Amino acid sequence: MPPTKVDAPRQSNSRPRGEIALPSDIARARRNGELISTDGKDLRSLINQQKSGIVSALAGTALNAERFTRIALTVVRRTPKLLDCEADTVLGALMTSAQLGLEPGPLGEAYLVPYGRVCTFIPGYRGLVKLAWQSGMVANIDAEVVYEGEPFDYEKGTESFLRHKPTREERNSIEGATHVWAAVKMTNGGSAFTVMHAREVERIRRTYSKGSHKDDSPWKTEWASMGKKTALRQLSKIIPLSVSLNIALAAENTVRRTVEGHVEDHVNHGDVLDGEIVREDDPAAGTPLSPDDPDLTAHKREES
Predict the structure, then answer these.
(1) d(CA 87, CA 257)
(2) Above 50 in pLDDT, residue 16?
(3) Nearest to 95 by CA among 58, 126, 60
């Protein structure tokens, strides 16, 4: 009986999903619309694989896992520089966002910001306000940018007050901005506000947010929101707003390389890149900034 002929196995040109590929394969896959990270991992596949973890992270929040996953993929697709980041840092930032109950993307609750080969998490102004409201401790909270020509006056002391009538229609640009303020009234009747000059906000941006000059930085695309967040951060040092809000602020600019654990674990042990404001307990930071720093927060009405 003649020997049975066995055909040689066919060589497949397909690349297994999630497998690390050669640089030439990465470039080819990206041209075909695949979301391949700089270390050759299929982010679309990896994000979808994390759905069960996202469901658990979002438990108890108003966010839907399907929507969160869909938005996460949209953010990666619309921010090509995220593909230049290592995949585990993108997944880590997404998990931090999910565990805080903040939606990344156009709503401004949170941002995934590429910094070289890593992805950093940055909470947005709307995200911080959301966390403050959810605490049940806040009766009213607001922040705003003051522009030239708008009626604005404030005074600190035992008879403190803050009055501002916004009149300008375009309110996202730094052009013409003079001040940024944040104010809160607590359910227990307490209240506080802080006022910062626009140049103080800019000094903080230049000093502590090293990537703020890049075109994809929130400081470039959402200056007003970032300015209001800076004022809100200063306000949180004066009056406690929310445990979750404080955790979100502590997680800012962290690089998380795993989806395991919770946000606090990575705040304490993860990598932290240059952020808006140095941590007050960081011995390498030198003299810490405080809410009473006259160069940081205005406590007196400016003399005309």
Answers:
(1) 9
(2) no
(3) 58
